[in-house]
Design brief:
Blueprint (H helix, E strand, L loop, with lengths): L2 E6 L3 H11 L5 E7 L2 H11 L3 E4 L8 H11 L4 E6 L4 H9 L4 E4 L4 H12 L4 E2 L1 H10 L6 H11 L4 H8 L3 H14 L5 H11 L3
Parallel strand pairs: 1-2, 1-3, 3-4, 4-5, 5-6
Helix pairs in contact: 2-3, 4-6, 7-10, 8-9
């Protein structure tokens, strides 16, 4: 039986190398490739592959959002995340979404092929260390609004501009930032950004 794959990876060299590698296996066939999140979601739904291999850091729509959208339309699809973003919060969110596998991009070729077959067979493939770290980190304490504000702050956007972009009062933005700092037990907004990035909450 041939396992049909759709691969989403924004780095062209890596994407082409992965396709070439996977096509060497008699039981694996890449039926579609995408370099952007929206494209990956549409391709997966239209092609209905057995396994969707997703990078998290995709342009326009991240891999976690793609996984959620595809899972909603194709409940039986198997999803394997292949990414360099292995922070605890990211892993936890992926597992919450029902992702079947989570591997670092530095994984050996043989291990990737084995993981694809295992995921297709119904197994969950995640490093025990990653699972432990994800559980220890706990759930993301930030609300979607708080995350959006902190993401803008992380790019150096000052509160008045954040307020303009999000259609909020400047005082409201400053109140959110104060609340975020308290939630993360941070010293200041810079420390809050560092903590959120460390756990993959940002």
């Amino acid at each position: 039986m041939v396992i049909r794959l759709v691969l989403a990876e924004d780095q062209r060299v890596l994407r082409e190398a992965l396709v070439a590698l996977l096509e060497l296996e008699r039981d694996l066939k890449v039926v579609g490739v995408a370099e952007r999140g929206q494209e990956a979601a549409q391709l997966a739904v239209s092609m209905s592959p057995d396994v969707l291999i997703l990078d998290i850091g995709l342009p326009d729509v991240n891999g976690l959002t793609v996984a959620a959208r595809v899972r909603a339309q194709l409940p039986a699809i198997r999803i394997l995340m292949l990414t360099s973003l292995d922070r605890p919060g990211v892993v936890r969110e992926a597992l919450t979404l029902g992702v079947n596998g989570f591997l670092p991009k530095g994984v050996a070729a043989a291990d990737l092929v084995t993981a694809i077959r295992d995921v297709h067979a119904g197994k969950r493939v995640v490093s025990p260390d990653l699972v432990s770290a994800a559980l220890a980190a706990g759930e993301n304490p930030l609300t979607p609004r708080e995350r959006s504000i902190l993401q803008l702050a992380a790019t150096g956007t000052p509160p008045p501009e954040i307020a303009t972009q999000l259609h909020l009062a400047e005082g409201t933005v400053r109140n959110y930032i104060t609340r975020i700092i308290a939630k993360l037990s941070a010293r200041n907004s810079t420390d809050a950004i560092r903590i959120a990035k460390h756990y993959g909450w940002l």
